[in-house]
Every structure is written in structure tokens, then in C-alpha cells.
């Protein structure tokens, strides 16, 4: 197996160096895609503005409360 590996991934020929570069770029791309897919599955949708569980006034834009104790809807 080492002979076949050395034939395609050697450092003395231009083709061998090109193959090493291609494998390097492909592994970086696969790692990036893996991280994007793993991170994307954890994201939660933002809360909707139509939620009527709170009796306080709703602002025009979604604003995160500074402290849970200051929020009067509890």
C-alpha cells in the first residue's frame, strides 16, 4: 500500500504536490461543512411577536429583557 500512496502523493513531482494540495483543500472543506451542519442544528427560531402569553405591551421590534426580575409579565 505504501508504494501506491507514494506514487500519487510524492513531493518530488508536480502531480504529487498537486494531489497533496487537493487532498488538503478537500479535507478543510469537509471540516468546514461538518462544523456548519453541526452548528446549524442547534439554532432555535426567534420568539414570535404574536405570542399572547404576556399581558404587557409588545415593542415594535423584539427586545431582549435586561433582567428577568424587571420583566413584569411573570
Your description of this structure?
Its main location: mitochondrion. One of its GO terms (cellular component) is mitochondrial membrane. This is ATP synthase membrane subunit DAPIT, mitochondrial-like. The chain is an all-alpha fold and 74 residues long. The chain has a domain at 2-40. Helices cover 46% and strands 0% of the residues. The protein contains two helices and no strands. It has helices at residues 2-8, 14-40.
Gist?
One of its GO terms (cellular component) is mitochondrial membrane. With 74 residues, this protein is mostly helical.
Structural key phrases:
2 helices, transmembrane, single chain, transmembrane helix, ATP synthase membrane subunit DAPIT, mitochondrial-like, rod-shaped, mainly alpha, 74 residues
Amino acid at each position: 500500500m505504501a508504494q501506491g500512496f507514494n506514487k500519487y502523493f510524492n513531493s518530488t513531482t508536480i502531480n504529487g504536490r498537486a494531489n497533496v494540495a487537493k487532498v488538503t483543500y478537500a479535507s478543510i472543506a469537509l471540516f468546514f461543512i461538518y462544523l456548519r451542519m453541526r452548528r446549524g442544528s442547534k439554532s432555535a427560531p426567534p420568539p414570535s411577536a404574536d405570542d399572547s402569553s404576556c399581558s404587557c405591551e409588545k415593542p415594535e421590534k423584539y427586545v431582549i429583557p435586561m433582567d428577568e426580575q424587571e420583566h413584569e409579565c411573570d
